[in-house]
Amino acid sequence: MLVGMGVPKQEKWISKNLDKLDIPVCMGVGGSFDVLSGRIPRAPLWMQRHGMEWVYRSIKQPNRVFQVFALFYFIWLVILGKIVSSLKEVD
C-alpha cells in the first residue's frame, strides 16, 4: 500500500494502522502523487539528474525542511524502539 499523506502524518498513520491491515508492505510516498499527477512541478532536469530535487523542493516549499527533519526523527525513533525491544527480549 502506498500512503501519500505527507510527512510525518503518513508515517504516524502507517505506524498506527499497519498491524490492522492484511498487507505485506506499506510505504509512505509523501507528495509523489502530487508530482506524478502534475499538480506540483518537478525540479529542473539537471537537478533531477544530480539527485538534488530535494534542494529544489526546499527552496520552493521552505516548510518541507521541517518535514524532512521530522521524517529522520521518526525513523530514528523507530530504529531506537526496535533496538530497545530486542534488548528487552534478550533479558
From TrEMBL:
GO molecular function, one term: hexosyltransferase activity
Residues that span the membrane, as ranges: 65-84
Record's protein name: Uncharacterized protein
Record-linked InterPro entries: WecG_TagA_CpsF (IPR004629)
Keywords tagged on the record: Glycosyltransferase, Membrane, Transferase, Transmembrane, Transmembrane helix
Taxonomic lineage from the root: unclassified sequences, metagenomes, ecological metagenomes
